[in-house]
Amino acid sequence: MKYNPDIHHCRSIRLKGYDYSQAGLYFITICTQNRLCLFGEIVDDGRATTICALNEYGRIAEKEWIKTSKMRSNIRLDVFVIMPNHMHGIIEIADGRGTMHRAPTVEQFGKPTSNTIPTIIRGYKSSVTKQINILRNQPGVPVWQRNYYEHIIRDEKSYYQISEYIQTNSLKWQDDKYYV
Questions:
Q1: pTM here?
Q2: N or C end of the chain: which has fewer CB within 10 A?
């Protein structure tokens, strides 16, 4: 089929006019393919709270998220949670001096730039997918939805609201838009 821009297009998740060339904070949400509850289940932990009890696949997703920040000196993965069918996290990218400004995502198609949000997410999703597919003996089967949600954290108030949301996400599972 010949390329038709009216049919074959991807809607950008990037904020138009925003300078993505500097460091900063981002809130990220990544969903599993078809929102399949692949990583575990929400359970009552016996202390009047609920948690996501991670299974083998969920532990891979958790381990790889932590590992991602250890691979890059200017990346810090802040608060995060692995839920049954998605994950939330805050990525902090510092400039070369360790100073926070804005988070970079400048990339040209086919020319990935290291330490950008798309590159970090791509590497994370790829590593998790590869390991899970080896365990379930299903090479090439998607684990994640094609895209992800990102939100630029612009101030301290927003940071604390998002952190609270992430930390209490399992408590609100029944009301969560990703709950299936």
A1: 0.79
A2: N
